[in-house]
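Check out a protein:
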Amino acid sequence: MKKEWEKLGLTAGVSLACGMVLGGGLALMINKAKTKSASDVLEAIKLSFSEEGSIEGAWIQMKKEELRRYAIKTKVYTGGITRREDEVLVQYEFIADAYTGTVIDIYRLN
């Protein structure tokens, strides 16, 4: 009888450990598939730009767009930043990955 309880306890322990590992893996996969909010992405980009000068304005498209470059396909946000550089207003537009918030491309407009 004691051996049966030991087997049952061992089986329950192994099952619990497997469930925890599988659940943790599933949670990581789900989190990785989530996109960041447009507001959070814009705030991070504004913070980076503000290290070099004051920002006069900023905007971001709230709707994600699909971007495909070569073999890479992802969802992105597009937006813009205006700041003063040597007393002149300079505008930039950017493309940021919606999953990581990483700036994929940025270019000066004027």
